[in-house]
Specification:
The chain is of the alpha+beta class. The chain has 17 helices and ten strands. The protein folds into two domains: 152 residues, Immunoglobulin-like, CATH 2.60.40; 409 residues, no CATH class. The termini are far apart.
Length: 629
């Protein structure tokens, strides 16, 4: 076998020829090779160089590839591999760029495609230089070997994450040490005297760190929870909301361009898929507490419903403005106006859930004074009309998803289309959900670059905030509403509250296990954020109940954690969300990079932008500035 140094030299020579020859196909939308003298100067993020060295004298070969996460996908053609020139003893060579985000399956077959020579599964490393050597092991049996050789080792693209973790851990240690020093009277008195913080701190701590939000409705501010001792705000709700929001801001800014900080291409979960449903969940929890607060103070249902309508209208209007920015680019065309979006879905979901709660709320239900045939279900049975309504919505979702005829697609199709399902249904992305959006909204008024286009190479527009998925978003908010009912019903009975959260988490987890068969692709209804499938909602609510339990225990029960820094953006969630969308492309949230192909620089930029919004929310909190809708 040729040495690694010789293969590297051959790779560089072949790359030089490649740069002069047009028309070479590359996997996953590769951008080609940059001109330069080495693989490092010709690098592309999440890609590696692969030199294919063919020592066979047979006709040219076909090289194809398939990404590991691509379920039941067609192999995608990469390049023709020329045969060896036997008289000159020169192997046939070609250079391609291969994806490094996921394991690849490489397939080599004859040019006619009938004979499969070899199939190799390999996970290439970023910026690595590899060779695939094809040669005959035994001429009598015509046994062919295909071996991958590392010419130049890849880099560890995950080191920036470790470095960032250490930096933020160091900052946390410094803050904790500083807090301990502040408990020393002489130090604390000196700091207060120099910075004149005593009066501000007194005003904020007088309300356990919260502004007066008793007149607000919805997810931006949780109302106060009455107890016999005092009126205090549940910081855990703002902390939960802030945690979801900050992760959402980070992944929206790019997440360092790491694949696991982007939305899953179709079925399955990444970090980016967790945060939006959690935000919806805590919106439902806050809605329950907020409506209870307003009705306790004597507000009429008509007044409260007017506020619900106004808030929903503002959220939807702001959402349409945010997802259709033109800034200084000139007038926005009405023909391409996108209707769905995150805030639009939040606004409509809030309208349905809050109106449902207001319509069927019963006096005495939240205090537990109503008699129920089963005391163990006293947080459910008094609200049976709401549950009937939600079950009817789920029946509608199931019927539309699995029974609605979609032209050119199998009934009940839940796949991504494109090259998935072996290319049988390329234009069926999202099945009934995609069809309903295209029918009612029009293709030009939907999201044009869905996450499925990356792996499955779909060409149809598909909106992850579409119409059909809104039904299950409403259910997610309703489960959050259920968490709020538990808090109101049991008040300061911490053990009962936490035990109910555990029970609900277990129930949701069991439902998810049944629906998915504990698999990514083979379940009855896979977990899918694009579709907002029912299994996605039950799984996310399972996580949400557990996460809320942990934060509630640490922040409000034991008071081991103040909720910082997530508490501050949680108090100004609408401002932070809209602000990060509007100013995403402005300095200091974004700047021209020295190396746009570096995960480290992208991660530094995205973390800086996210941290700035935490700092902004903290400053606004100290100045008692809160933007409410």
């Amino acid at each position: 076998m040729a040495s690694a140094a010789g293969l590297a030299a051959a790779a560089l020579a072949a790359m030089g020829a490649l740069l002069m020859a047009p028309g070479l196909s590359q996997p996953h939308g590769g951008e080609g090779l940059a001109r330069g003298g080495s693989s490092r100067t010709a690098r592309r993020m999440d890609q590696a160089v692969l030199l294919v060295r063919n020592e066979l004298r047979a006709p040219r070969l076909n090289l194809s590839a398939r990404a590991g996460p691509c379920h039941q996908c067609l192999y995608q053609f990469l390049a023709f591999v020329p045969p060896s020139n036997g008289s000159l003893r020169e192997p046939g060579m070609v250079v391609v760029m291969v994806d490094t985000q996921h394991p690849l399956t490489l397939l080599l077959n004859s040019s006619g495609g009938d004979e499969e020579l070899c199939k190799i599964q390999y996970h290439f490393g970023e910026f690595g230089n590899y060779s695939l050597v094809i040669k005959t092991l035994n001429t009598s049996t015509k046994t062919v070997s295909c071996d991958i050789v590392i010419n130049e080792g890849p880099i560890n693209s995950y080191l920036p994450i470790l470095f960032a973790f250490l930096v933020y851990t160091g900052i946390l240690v410094i803050l904790v040490v500083g807090r301990l020093f502040m408990k020393i009277d002489p130090v604390r008195n000196w700091v207060y005297k120099k910075l004149n913080l005593r009066e501000t701190d007194h005003r904020i701590n007088s309300e356990f760190g919260s502004p007066n939000t008793t007149d607000s409705v919805g997810s931006d501010a949780s109302p106060r929870l009455w107890s016999t001792a005092s009126r205090q705000r549940l910081r855990s709700l703002d902390t939960f909301r802030g945690l979801s929001l900050i992760i959402m801001v980070f992944v929206n800014y790019g997440g360092g361009k790491y694949w696991f900080f982007r939305h899953e291409s179709w079925n399955g979960l990444t970090v980016a898929d967790l945060v939006f449903p959690w935000f919806v969940f805590i919106m439902g929890t806050s809605t329950s507490l907020s409506l209870s607060s307003m009705l306790r103070r004597g507000a009429s249902k008509k007044q409260v419903f007017g506020k619900i309508l106004w808030r929903s209208f503002l959220l939807i209007l702001l959402g349409i403005i945010v997802v259709n920015p033109n800034y200084c680019l000139g007038p926005l065309s009405w023909d391409n106006l996108r209707f769905p979006g995150v805030l639009q879905r939040l606004g409509f979901t809030y309208l349905v859930v809050a109106a449902l709660e207001l319509l069927f709320t019963r006096v005495g239900a939240e205090s537990g004074s109503l008699e129920t045939p089963c005391p163990a279900l006293k947080d459910i049975l008094p609200y049976w009309p709401q549950w009937i309504f939600m079950l009817m919505l789920e029946v509608i979702w199931l019927c539309l998803t699995f029974l609605l005829p979609v032209p050119g697609c199998p009934r009940g199709y839940l796949g991504p289309g494109g090259i998935g399902d072996f290319g049988k249904y390329p234009n069926c992305t999202g099945g009934a959900a995609g069809y309903i959006d295209r029918l009612l909204l029009g293709e030009k008024h939907m999201y044009q670059h869905p996450s499925s286009s990356v792996i499955y190479q779909t060409t149809m527009p598909y909106d992850p905030e579409g119409i059909l998925g809104t039904i299950n978003t409403i259910f997610m908010a309703f489960l959050g509403l259920q968490a709020g009912k538990i808090i109101l019903l049991y008040k300061d009975q911490h053990k009962q509250i936490m035990s109910r959260f555990v029970i609900w988490s277990i129930v949701m987890g069991i439902i998810s296990a049944v629906l998915t068969k504990c698999s990514k692709e083979e379940g009855f209804i896979p977990i899918n954020k694009n579709l907002w499938s029912i299994s996605y909602v039950t799984t996310m609510s399972c996580f949400a109940f557990i996460l809320l339990l942990l934060i509630y225990y640490l922040v409000d029960v034991r008071r081991l954690w103040s909720g910082a820094p997530f508490f501050y953006p949680g108090m100004n969630s609408i401002l932070v969300y809209i602000g990060h969308e509007v100013f995403a492309n402005y300095f200091p949230f974004k700047w021209k990079m020295q190396d746009s192909q570096s995960h480290a620089e992208h991660l530094a930029q995205n973390l800086t932008a996210t941290t700035l919004w935490v700092i902004i929310s903290y400053v606004l909190y100290r100045k008692r500035i809160f933007w409410k809708i």
